[in-house]
Hints:
The structure holds two protein chains of two kinds. Chain A is of the alpha+beta class. Chain A has helices at 56-70, 86-102; strands at residues 2-9, 21-24, 31-36, 43-50, 75-81. In chain A, strand 4 (43-50), helix 1 (56-70) and strand 5 form a beta-alpha-beta unit. The longest helix of chain A is centred in the C-terminal third of the chain and has 17 residues, at 86-102. Chain A is globular. By secondary structure, chain B is α/β, with parallel strands linked by helices. Chain B has a domain at 13-173 and 213-236: 2-enoyl-CoA Hydratase, Chain A, domain 1. Chain B has helices at 13-20, 39-43, 82-94, 117-136, 154-161, 178-185, 195-202, 204-209, 221-231, 240-257, 263-269, 283-289; strands at residues 27-29, 54-61, 64-71, 103-107, 141-145, 164-168, 215-217. In chain B, strand 3 (64-71), helix 3 and strand 4 form a beta-alpha-beta unit. In chain B, helix 3 (82-94) runs parallel beside helix 4 and helix 4 packs parallel to helix 5 (154-161). The chains are: A alpha+beta, B alpha/beta. The A-B interface holds A 1, 20, 22, 25-27, 30, 32, 34, 36, 49-51, 78, 80-82, 104 and B 12, 14, 24, 31-33, 35, 45-51, 72, 74-75.
Amino acid sequence: MERLSFDFACRGDPAPLLAPILVGVVASGNLEVLVEGGAPPGRCRLEVLTSARGFGEIWEAVLRDFATRHSLSGLAVSVNDAGATPAVVSLRLDQAVDEYLRRP
Amino acid sequence: MTGPARSFREATARRRLEGVLDPGSFREILGPAHRLTSPHLAALDLPVSFDDGAVVGSGLLGGRPVLAAAQEGGFMGGGVGEVHGAKLAGLLGLAERQPWAGVLLLLDSGGVRLQEANAGLLAVSEVMRAVLSARAASVPVVALVGGGWGCFGGMGIVARCCDAIAMSEEGRLGVTGPDVLETTKGVEELDASDRAAVWRTYGGKHRYLLGEADRLIEDDLSAFREAAMELLSARRDLGLEELEREHRHLGRRLEEFGGCADARDVWRAAGVEDPDRLPGLEPADFRAAVRAARRGDR
């Protein structure tokens, strides 16, 4: 397993402090994404635990893209990955934020 | 049924709970943000899941308060590890504390998570005891079996410890699963790659015909919801008389079907005309076709 941590600057609106949301499943080629509020203002923090070692640069590119697109200040994202492809990771992250913001 | 069919089998554990319980009523206990992950998997350098593959909580079913748990088959085949099992047993333990209308177990599991060895085995036995304790406290426990991983090993026993079981045709129920059976008894006993034979042996239709499953329903979340509502009132006695009756029933079953090599032989011996057509029937037609032949054990 490899643990990766990212902390990006986010200039966007503050993420609302809502109930945490989990999407996806830790199954082969898939991942789960936990989205919470509560990271420091102006930052987007992401923690990744992945079974595929040596892909740190690709994770950084995918997650930086995600943080730029949504730019929610104070968002905390935690990922358990079982070898998902970058496209699947991107889709899951979008799904997670979408569900997080839509929850009552 | 209302709205288009939504597959129970294809849904995740969380989606299943949302689809079976009253909309928006589920409240998770020890949800993923608590990060109760498996220490055993971490020690083995394997991926973990924030909920350890078990989603537990409370909700409403037709307006009645129930406890509910769902196993996520996608994570390690729904294997029961120490944390996963403790969440199930802990939820069942709540059943005695309040007048709950029942406990729903949405089971989807190959059995014990082998990586957790004895801790997983102990966890499964704790779940069995907790099911029986809840039942002894007059809280009905209903198993819903329709996930892609079936319900095998210790969880198969847990299902049969419940008051009632609802299954889809796609669901499978047993103790020794097809691959383990082939490995230990040989391919002559069961070819685990023969999907038709596997479903004839373990599938919902066979279990319903034998009287082990109380409902055979469509692979649809609304169908599971309706079956769960009905089965909340299907309480089974837990006393010695019931146990002896069940033993007599199983003894008769062994005499009746013990010589059968294939489920089709069982169906024929049970009095089903043209048993070869059973696998192709829709649930409602199937129920009608086996009404007279079905063995009721309750």
